[in-house]
Amino acid sequence: MFIVSVNATQESKPKPRKWVIFSTFLSWFIKKLCLQQFGRFHSVAKRAPLVSLASMDISSTASKRLEKQWQIASRITLEAEKNLAGYPPFLRQVLFNRGIATAEGSKRFLAALPTDNNDPFGIKGIEAAVERIELAIRQKDQIVIYGDYDADGVTATALMVQCLQSLGPDVSYYIPDRFEEGYGLNVAALRHLKESGASVVLTVDCGIRSLAEADEARRLGLDLIISDHHSPGPELPNAFAVINVKQPGDEYAEKQLAGVGTAYKLACALEQRLKSTGWSSAASLDLVALGTVADLVPLTGENRHLVREGMSLLRRPQRQGLMALIGASGLKPQNICAGDIGFMLGPRLNAAGRLDTAIAALQLLLTQDVFEAGKLAQDLDNRNRERQQLTNEITESAEAIAIAEGPEALLLIAVHPEYNPGVVGLVASRLVDRYYRPAIVGQRGEKVTRASCRSIPEFHITRALEQCADLLETFGGHAAAAGFTVRNDRYPELLQRLNSLAKEQLGKLNLLPTLQADAELPLVDLKPDLLDQIELLEPTGYGNPQVYLVSRGLQVRNARPVGREGSHLKLVVSDGQITYDAIAFRQGHWAQDLPAVVDLLYRFEVNEFNGRRSLQLNVRDLKASI
Ligand SMILES: [Mn+2]
Asked: 12 C-alpha to center of ligand 1: Å?
């Protein structure tokens, strides 16, 4: 056998297999029950389309064939080649492409070893937080974990709730409502928590820019401990303690922890100091893996170590909720990889908070009850489907609105009173994918418009918003993604200014998306042992991309559209010596006029279908061979 995940299959104990069958049955049963009893989950299908598409002239076919440039990594240097001489040539090149060029660095990376200096007490603010929590345990103070509604926020909340519960104090949690309250701390919630008897409020994944709220907590007599990973503003909140590895004066080596990673470090500190019973930091790494991958923080350094460890827990899930969620997603636990978190589990955990409250996702992570777990997992799966449909619907509408500005528009902008704020960020990402232009999609309310932005490397969206700060109520984000709130009377001026910034920075550029490939090689050089080497890079994702390869001059032996509406393309390609099956997802549009000889940019992978395993090329992009 040639790939690591095969070994995982063989190692898996019989118990999880039974559970898979059981949870599949359970999902089916509950689905039936839900359909009979509550066929009502905010059906989006009943709503009329938001904008009449027929009246607009959009040629989206052209955009789907958006030409992409391929960039093949430059060849490994002689020095790196020498340092990495112990590995096969392919792996050397792939490591080099990821900035790993020393013997020591490669050993650390491949084994996903823990980083040096990872003592949680090395993080500023943790000592003060641990002391306050110790006091709370002695005094029987009530502690409230204040979380967030995304996957990072709910995993962080679940982790902290379970850690503190094992230590004895009175613990509860609070997750704000995206629609009623919005992201982060708010004064009304703090007052409510004070009235219900809280003494300590511990945030996870939020709070670093909540200056006014921290002052209010002081006035109320609440001890506020902030743990967060978002970039601090110029001033820090005046809280009882602030834990954030990005704050000035923090000397902790890893600066890219997720919200759940930050909560985990605090939990480790508590575990060291307080000798908890019945809870272990090691057993909570499944939550760390989920939140870290879903939040798109780089999977390098300490995150790589934490996620690698967490993935092996996810493959033998101990939590009822995760077992049920994995089953509801159609995955087999023993095969789960980081990509499955990104594309399958993360979206389901996020779905609840995008459409409604995130509490269902949190309960799923906390429950010990197999029936409740099954019901919640099915509920999240339904929500996710609903979220997909809503995203599709709003994407079509937003595309029409944005394109109506004319084909030369450098920014894609669409706001509408009926857009759901829970999915506008996803819609903006899709527009960027389709047109390779920065996109802004938002909900226009009565007085203000709230929008999400996604951008391309050529345009730092948050810097652009900074230059419009005087027009905005709130804004924040990073280079590629941001959000803002603007008063409607200032919106036209904002658009004008953003458009002129875009013209300044993008006007003279030939905007083409670039796909990176690790190597160009003839088809005949694809050997199964490459898959072993590719597997060593896991977990892959943000900051540690999957391996892409390029092969040119391939004859198309067979091609046909597959899937619903023929949206995918199945191919058989050959270099004259060897023949491979290939699948090109969302590229069914090639079916009518596919060139006879093609160049492919693809991932080399194992396809598992009905228990049969075969090798295939998963095609990311296709060009006529010149
Ligand atoms: Mn986060």
From this structure: 32
